[in-house]
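Final paragraph of the annual report: two paired records, presented back to back.
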Amino acid sequence: MTKPLTPPRTWAAAAAVVALALAGLGSAGAAGATTPPPQTAPTPAPTLAPDDLAAKPYQGWSSFSQQVYNDDGQWITADNIIAQSDAMHEKLQPFGYDHINVDAGWNGGVDEYGRPTPSTTLYPDGLQTVIDHVHGNGQKFGLYFIPGMGPDVYEAALPVYGAPGCTTHDIVKQPLQQADYWKIGYAIDFSNPCSQKYIDSIADQLEAWGVDFVKFDSVTPGSGISDGSVDARDDVAAWSSALKARGIWFELSWALDIQYADYWKEMADGWRVDWDVECYCGDEALTQWANIDRLFPRMAEWWRHGGPGGWNDLDSLNVGNGKMDGLTKDERRTATTLWAISAAPMYLGDDMTKLDDYGLSLLTNQDVIAVQQAGVPAQPVSTSTKHQVWYSQNPDGTYTVALFNLGRADADVTANWSDIGLSGAADVRDLWTGEKLGTFDSSFTGTDIPIHGTQLLQVTPQKDAQVTVNDDSLRVAYDGGWTRNDGLQVAPATQPFTLATIDSSTGEGQPAAPTDGRSIVVNDDDPGIVYSGTWGHSTGRGLGDHDDDVHYTEQNGDAFQYTFQGTGIDFVTETHESEGEAEVYLDGTLVQTVDAHLDPSEGRGVQQTLYSASGLPDGSHTLRVVKKSGSYLLLDRLDVTVESLLDSGSATFDRAAPADVQVGLLRTPSEFAGISNAGTPLVEGTDYVVSGSTVSVTQGYLSSLPIGSATLEFSFRGDLHGDVHATRTDGDFATFAFTGTSVSWVGATAPDQGTVDVYVDGAFRETVDTHSDARLTGQVLFSATDLKDGDHTITVVKASGDVMRHDSFVYTVKKVK
């Protein structure tokens, strides 16, 4: 059950609805409401203050990569921090970089109230001197903390500053419990009011020093522990309360559990979504390509959780010096592009006194910085390929489109306008080079993008182009108790149908085995499986593997991920003495730790189901498996269970007795989208005929097939991107602002839906009846086609029925920007 959505923290939600009553605009007849609706649209309440700390993702620098690179946890001396501040001031500050964040190891003890004090060894003239220098350069200063309390502070039973009667001994949980990943401290009991006073006293000290930023590390669930055995959410809430009251940015780390994304968004200004970016390979390099590559599937999960008010954190951006980064030039530009399109905080880990010219060109490109500062995280068209297209829709109506070649050879990468919600021509400009590339009717292809390379584009729709804005876009503002999906969505779906062609007169061919078509086998070499890390592919092993091949890795932390449409999935692998544990995540939640280890006496198990999920809500799900221990982790195949869409999964066509093959549809016939064979669509009326709930594949088409087996794909429509926003409360509404000459509201009709009041530019237009006897997707529920060219809003308000679903808005562009 997803939590109710608060209105998005976005400029769209904060904008006032324009109250223009446009005279003379007609409306299509709709079912009338029982009582007249208000004649003016409701206005969403502002959800983000103009001076909110996290209105935009920050830019800056963090010390940790240099601490690792120099193999010296004490690298963060006053001299080094001051040198970094001066280098930033000289080279990067004019481009927005203004945070100097000092990571772990800055403190040297505690004061008489149990509050951390700076190291006198690192800062012989006092940390305050360093902070003052950073502030003197016009920059912000950050420090590092973790949950819990050190054993020495607990044992000392020190008084809590400003809280008579409270001691540091009183506020620790009993019996003693682990507070952090490294088992450094004891968990604090936040049911004791003294605990909040202790955190407040630390925040008071930080405010007095002039600290502007806190990185709070080892936050659980996350940080390698998501099983509930260690839970820092109470710490996060206490620190959030203390820091927000004092105007200090609050950043959470690391690899936070996405199941609690709403909680992190409520409490913090940013949150790390993955493990450390550093490669921990000494002074050979700061990072490596595998640590960048693994962030793509993470952002495919997390992108919708970032936006004004709180940001997805990808860790340090180590692209400033090729001699230390551990990345090629193409990989450095790809990393910078990913950080920018993700609207992730862009903070360097390089030694800023040694930036090279290429690194500076990446970090100071004004167009790329503008993408990051626009604060609109991009989403992938698909992660089922190494040639990926990511895009975001900007508030000015333009698109940011990134083409990534994550493969092992130079390749063309194509962005189809239809995949990003654009119909019509568009101008394209390269944001890295500033070059205008021309006007393209339906797609753009980046040619010969190098291995691990990228091309970053601004796409501007031309006159009369139509733009489709999905329900999860930051351009749509919601007011009320909206949820995303919550089992109310219908995903587009395809079900395979096995067709065997035989000739009984000659004995050629084998009849099709009966099947319900609900189980789909996905081999380990399927392009939809995304491998993160250093995976190999072993073929011809002769050990009984499915299709005689497996993928394997020897590196802990390597992972594979697969997004599927269905109701269940099995992870099938081998078991052996050389293998160990793996963590299984389903839809971002750690659900099980499985063990593929066998005692040597047991030999080897082949095609073993190590994890199985069933009975899931029909829709999109993501399985992620991460190697935890052992010498190897293998993937042999995945078995996906899909909703039954057809009354059978196979049939046999006999050339000696030709007849149409009839297939019954189990989903609403009007949702049937067609049939294809190996990617080639069949022609309705010639190759197949639809009559009610029966599809007849004609003998004329079947006679053209060779003897043997073929797989026909039966496709069904669904909600756009397989998701919707929904509410059950009358009066809840969604608002969308656009610049154009027409707008349509597109969504579902269903038995559980009722009426919706529609407003354009603040004025009531009509009441739309969204009730139907069957669940239908992609219905045009309302259109206004004669708007004057300019800025407009559309607001849709739930008036009756059990549920209101919102899927998309479509508008027509008139002006050429």
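The closing record of the year follows.
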Amino acid sequence: MTIGDERQGGRRRAGLKRLGACGLSLLLAFACAVPASAQPATAGAEDFIKVRLEPGVGLRTLSQRYLDNPDLWPIILSVNNVSDITELAIGQELLLPGNQKRLSASALDASLSEIQRANESGAQLYAPILIRNAIEFRDEATVRDREGIYVESIDLSSRAINRAEAARLKSEEQRDVEAEARLSDRQGWVEGQKTSENSWSERDLNAILNEQEKLRTLSRSTAQVVFRDASRLRLNANSQAVIQRMRVDPLKRREEAKISLVEGDFYALLATESDRNQLQVELENVDAKIDSGSFWVSQDADGAKFSNYDVRPVAITAGDETLVLGRNEGTVVRPGQKPGRKIGIQSRIALQTPADEAVVYGGSVDLGWDAAETSGGYWIEIAHDGRFDRMADSLWGIETNRLDDHPLPPGTYFWRVAALDDFGLPGQMSSVRKFELRTDDTPPFLQIRTPEPGAVLREAAVTISGETEAGAAVLIDGAVADIDQSGRFYLTIDAREGLNDVAVVARDTAGNETERRIAFDYVADQRADILYDRSLPRDAEGRFLSANEVLSLAGTVIGGARVSVFGAAGTPRSETIAAADGRFALNVPLSARGEDLAIRVTTVSGYAYEETIAAAILDEAPRLRPTEPLPQVTASALLPLAFETDPANRVAVNGTPFAMAGGVASGEVALVQGANTIEIVATNPVGLVTIEKRTVVYDTERPAVTAQEVSVEDRGETELFEIRIGATDASGLAQTSRYAVRSGTAEKDGVLRYNRARKVYQGTVELPRRAAGDVVTIVVELADVAGNVSQVELVR
């Protein structure tokens, strides 16, 4: 079920009621509010809120609504033993922490206040173990609070309060003891030497320092000394000092100390609430009486250097002269010389990056700040706490106003920077900034809401939207998307025609990435003509032809479109889906020898358009008529042919296509000697065929003469000549042959007829009697059916 505001408010009032009922003290209040048995595995229903995941409500929304912070969404996954957001489903019941978070935050605040009270009472000096335990318990509580384990966080905060209170009470009881100091923080290698020791030895953290004890730091090392009144002195790298004298009057809260700086430098921050009587700093040939609560001093081969940051003075004596430094003033005392002039130290510079309270991911951090007016370098301090009691690193003489890729372990850090002038004097420290260095290798969650996978869109402008972690960046095909504080993002892109495959990448501040891909189709609302295959049979009127009652159509349209065919009355005839490249083919039943059909194209986006075609059934073989009869015999090597037929038909003779013009197919056929088969094939557009075969003889040989005979019969005044000529020919002989007779001056011609049975040409001619000695000449021309001619000359 979904928890309403009324029930939620009731639970809050119940939590406050339980907290108030315990009374007595803050410590007892937390003890009552969080019983020892209230662990996540056995917690009662009052420790959690049950909600049901509803459509449109993300984890960030639930975290904001019930935990007051949208960035606490991983806690919901942890409490419900869910490793990835994709495992959640709409309608799933989830457990959310109830009033534990608010109790945990209150407990953390109370423990911090109690620790500060203990420190102000001198707990670091008089009860170091107790106060360290209190700090450790609170650090652990902070981690548990961040992880969402609020019951453990509250329990650890209660322990921190207990230890801090004990430390404060112990410190107040032991204030009036012999003066001594403590090594409260050390970084790197720190050594010490007491008067009873013959050599230097390493000093442990919280080691007690006595009068006349020497202390030194090596390279990349620092050491912090804490006095009874919580005043602090930090030795920087390669420094050595001697605690010459420490005296304390507990009743009057007055302390006296003298420090001898052999070499190096230190920074001092004195307790402001103390009526410190005197702090003296002794250097080679230089003495300083310190009333200032904040100052820096160094000793090297170039002499002594001082910077005072407090309104109270620092009096420097060298030789017989004294120079008093006021606030933000410094000086350099050369070896064997009197104090030099006062120098105004560098003013405070501003920090740039990272921002205060920033979270930095990885194993290093980039620090940046404003450049100073002079170029003497910079002094950077990085600590685990805002008071710089626990130093993480101290870097002197950084040349530029940046520190890149500085390695640090994961944790919370505080940092500040001071500019150095040309004399090497550090200026005022900058304000303090805090950052957290985290190791994060968990990719951000990423959900894509629009468009839906596989969607088919009709507009080129496509908005891709979704949700990811707050603070993460989203790249859509490399372009940066707009994203709000809750992690909701969107970007409108111009889709490409067809399939679009878009990469969406969410990148968190730690550099972890999650990639999702969304595929969709974009099909523009535009009409594209149907391109029918040219091989489809059509007549002169453009009608699509079929040899039967089924018309086959094929062509190209928009890829993936639906192609539907309807009759004149709107009745569906056939339908298919075009391939991705737009190719389609379908068979359409025909209901008449000629009819009109509607072709409708519907794209994948739903856009539709139509066009009309005409179809006809052509089921008769083509007609074929020669323009002239084909000869049976010819003496010509090329036989010209021409046929009348439908212009849509194709005509081929002996496999050779004939040219079509005006409904006449014409061409020539090459003949070979003898009989030639002529095959004429006519094909109509739907493939029906008419075939005719003829034989044409190609003959170029003249008739052969097989016999020749002339006989004469005397008839008185005339003579009767009988002519017989035998002949043969492969292609056949002509039925007649011509002859011409000359006798003297007389001439006469005629025709001989062919006797097929005897295979001879024969005939008679009657001539006047010739004179004695005259010769009769007879010339006969023999022709075959191909027109070849042979001549025979007879003399009598």
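Confidence is low (pLDDT under 50) at residues 1-45. This concludes the annual technical report; the extension proposal builds directly on these records.
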